[in-house]
Each structure stands twice: as structure tokens, then as C-alpha cells.
Fold this sequence. Notes:
alpha/beta, Nucleoside Triphosphate Pyrophosphohydrolase, Nucleotidyltransferase, domain 5, five-stranded mixed beta sheet, elongated
Amino acid sequence: xxxxxxxxxxxxxxxxxxxxxxxxxxxxxxxxxxxxxxxxxxxxxxxxxxxxxxxxxxxxxxxxxxxxxxxxxxxxxxxxxxxxxxxxxxxxxxxxxxxxxxxxxxxxxxxxxxxxxxxxxxxxxxxxxxxxxxxxxxxxxxxxxxxxxxxxxxxxxxxxxxxxxxxxxxxxxxxxxxxxxxxxxxxxxxxxxxxxxxxxxxxxxxxxxxxxxxxxxxxxxxxxxxxxxxxxxxxxxxxxxxxxxxxxxxxxxxxxxxxxxxxxxxxxxxxxxxxxxxxxxxxxxxxxxxxxx
Length: 293
């Protein structure tokens, strides 16, 4: 029996209505009246949370403010795919803006449906199965660190990033350190050999914590654009990859030597300097290899 793995989003407004999208009339997979949850496939090499962030932006034209794992749902015997096990990684998503701009090639309209509405409106089979399974599960409360945290209370802000060309492939880490008022303290990058992008992200954060301790900081805000690492370190997700456990333990032990710290998720375009250090380290390593050969 085949398995299909996808991601889906439960997006609710301030009245707890659920966002549903109506498919464009040109699509043949369902009737035009059918509504569905924002959902899509996971691209090769993507983490599920990365996929849902990309899909939300592609489908409704806005960025994700924060995402939290809600459940993993499986079901079979849908009319059009009775031989397929459907596995959906379902996220509760908060949007950065309520102004939606639909991808008109895919969707023609959207609706905010109340709990009562969900009982009666036409919803595609997969979305209906997800909604029915999660009916009694409340969406977790999502808040952003920027809404509650004052950056001026930290000795320093450290941006970190890791990257791999090949995944696994040649990898590097980068960091960028500023004061709470934006004054640059230090920046740099290091080539770390051949590893995966996932390990590189962890090694980058470990380097950032080590730099904080070397510079004598006691209170630090760490900013990363990798949501998986942030959610692992903040306890939202459990770590299931054995290659990450030692790095996770190292980071937690190092963080324990600080008086106060915060690990925050940021968008990739807010982490361009640390990313530039990663690419510089990779380019420098490549030049050395070419010179030696």
C-alpha cells in the first residue's frame, strides 16, 4: 500500500473561524464548490514546517508569523485513493497579515468558517477527514517573541546560520553579533567539512553560544531562520534524529552557563549577514580545494 505525505494548515482568526480555500474552476479533482484547508506536498529536502511556510505564502500571499505542530493525521479509503494511506502533518499557523492575496491559478476565493459552518459546507475529502479527526483538539495559543520580549534587556543579539551545498555536502556556519542597539560586535564564518544542512544549523547555534561565552555575555538573544532548530531548543518538538542528539545536548549545556537567553525564529531575509558568512566560508574552502588540486 502506498503512502502520501503532505502538510496542512489550521488557520483561525480572532473569532476562531477556520480559513478554507475554494479551488479554481479549471481544476478537475473536485467540484467548484469544494473548499479545502491550505495544504500541499513536501519538496525533496524540506522539513514539514518549511513546506507549510512556503505553501502558505504561495497560496494566500502572506507570510507566516508563527507555526506550531498540531498533530500527525493518517487516514485511508478516500473515494479517489482507496489504496493510499494519507499522512498529513498538520500545523496551527498564525499569519503575519490578514490581508490575503490568493494564487488565482489555484484558488478563486476563501472563507472563514465557524465551527457550525464546518458541519454543513462542502469540503474536500482530505480536509474533511483532518477537521473531523481534530474536532475536539483546540488550536494552541500562538504568540510571537517580538510581542513580549524586549531586546534591550540583552547584552547581545547573535544571529546564526548554517548551510550545506549538497545536503549532505560541503558545509559551513556563520554568525553575526550586535549589541541590543544594533552596534556590530563581531561576525564570522567557519567551514565545517561535509555534513547535512540540519547538522550545520545546529553547529552554527553551538558556535554562537560559544562566542557569547567567550565574550563574557550573560544575557543573550539568539536569532535563527531555521524553525526546526528553534522548536527543538524551545521544547515545542521532540528530537527524533540520532545525529542531532549530541549537538542538542552540547548546546543545552552551554546555554546553561548563561544567566538568561532567548532563542527566536526570524525570516530568512532578516538573517542575510550570517547567511553571507556561511557562503563566504564555503567559497573560501572551495578556492583552497581548487588551489591544492
